[in-house]
Specification:
This protein is mainly alpha-helical and about 425 residues long. It contains 19 helices and 2 strands. The protein has one domain. About 75% of the residues lie in helices and about 0% in strands. It starts with a helix and ends in a 13-residue tail after the last helix.
């Protein structure tokens, strides 16, 4: 009797998992429920590992907070709260719980910028981030309430199964996606990101680029199956804004003087490609988007860490002041090079694997996309080479401090960014199960 009941439960759970797999954008994201509205799948598990990894390195990179006794205990407490909120976001099997966790991540980030930022402009940057996010979040809450009224549940599996009877209008489609597009951020809604990066401490920049931007892509992957038919009508908008917006932002990168501002704008260009892949709802596009999100999280976080090392030595983030770093800190020349080629998606980095998949998905959707992607790839390489050559070459203003090496702690943090970025590509079948 017990065997029959347990076998029946197994059959029901297998049916539910296979049904969800069909609806999860043709990808192998199987949900494993653990109760209390929590569950995890392959996508959530990848981002949970990335969150713990980046948060740990972020604390290692913030040694100056401890040395200056700048409220170090409170700093660690804010980081732990942020990590808990991120884990709840990626473990949520309920749309309402995901919404609460998604919006709660704004509070610790706001405290990090205002509490440990560098300049008085950090108040303006924090308000920019706060109001951009809050302005976009209320329509999402109204949309989720409407979904609950229509389908009778906000559990992701049950809502997906009842999503096709959900009377979708254009208004609800855009209201639901808008919050995630601002968090991603989409071009035209990205002005809060460079301001937040420039004014945030190194910990804030690392977690913002490494994890918080991924919440937007993760949310899009979760809600787009609800609007499967409606999304087909508006795919051209997201692909166009993603690719052409990336080209415009890449041109803006070429005129940046602040290193952190340049890296922040490059994040917008990368996330534009991620948006294109997710909105196409194809296996290639979704797989490539997930790989680029992980690769960008490691690469961008490492670049912000390097920018902080430069700022601590020189007292400035300007590329005009920080010339000749190859003479000033020769040991870090290789680290700069490895992270820069990762930013331009050169082999053997993880970004290359993801961008190849994204390029294939966009070009297979429209042959015209090759021109936008060609321009985006060219200018991505251009601004990355511009950043590397201008910072590393030239004559340093004060040659008395030549051959100033980094500390062991800094090398440790940078290597833990570079090694996964270049080694995970050897296990590419984890991201592309269909290639096995």
């Amino acid at each position: 009797m017990i065997f029959v009941e347990s076998w029946g439960l197994v059959q029901v759970s297998l049916l539910g998992m296979s049904f969800l797999a069909l609806l999860s954008l043709n990808h192998d994201f199987y949900f494993f429920f653990v109760g209390y509205g929590l569950g995890v799948d392959y996508l959530g598990f990848i981002l949970i590992i990335l969150s713990v990894w980046i948060l740990s390195l972020m604390v290692f990179a913030s040694q100056t907070v401890k040395k200056a006794n700048n409220y170090s205990k409170e700093f660690l407490g804010v980081n732990l709260i942020l990590l808990f909120i991120l884990l709840m976001s990626f473990c949520s099997a309920d749309y309402l719980m995901f919404y609460v966790s998604f919006e709660s991540s704004l509070v610790p980030m706001f405290i990090l910028i205002l509490g440990w930022g560098y300049q008085p402009e950090r108040i303006q940057a924090g308000l920019y981030m706060l109001f951009y996010t809050l302005f976009a979040s209320l329509p999402l809450l109204v949309s989720l309430v409407s979904l609950y009224k229509s389908s009778g549940s906000l559990c992701m599996e049950l809502a997906l199964s009842g999503g096709f009877s959900f009377k979708v209008s254009v208004l609800w489609y855009f209201c639901t996606l808008f919050a995630f597009l601002v968090k991603l951020p989409l071009f035209l809604f990205h002005l809060w990101l460079p301001k937040a990066h420039v004014e945030a401490p190194v910990a804030g920049s690392m977690v913002l680029a490494g994890i918080l931007l991924k919440l937007g892509g993760y949310g899009l992957i979760r809600v787009l199956p609800l609007f499967f038919e409606m999304n087909k009508l508006f795919t051209w908008i997201w692909v166009s804004l993603g690719v052409l917006g990336g080209v415009v932002v890449s041109l803006m990168c070429l005129r940046q003087v602040d290193v952190k501002s340049l890296i922040a704008y490059s994040s917008v260009a990368h996330m534009g490609m991620v948006l294109s892949g997710i909105s196409l709802m194809s296996h290639w596009g979704l797989s490539g988007a997930v790989v680029v999100m992980v690769g960008h999280g490691l690469c961008s976080s490492g670049l912000f860490c390097l920018a902080n090392i430069m700022y601590e030595r020189l007292g400035s983030r300007s590329l005009m002041v920080g010339k000749g770093l190859l003479n000033f800190m020769p040991n870090l020349g290789l680290v700069w090079f490895l992270l820069c080629i990762g930013n331009m998606a050169a082999p053997p980095t993880l970004n290359l694997l993801g961008e190849i998949s994204l390029i294939v998905s966009v070009v297979s959707w429209s042959k015209l996309g090759i021109w936008g992607i060609a321009a985006l790839s060219f200018f991505s390489a251009s601004y990355t080479l511009y950043m590397y050559s201008l910072s590393q070459h030239g004559q340093f203003l004060n040659s008395l401090y030549s051959c100033s090496s980094g500390t062991l702690n800094e090398y440790f943090v940078l290597m833990l960014h570079i090694i996964p970025l270049n080694m995970v590509i050897m296990k590419g079948f984890v991201a592309f199960p269909s290639f096995c």
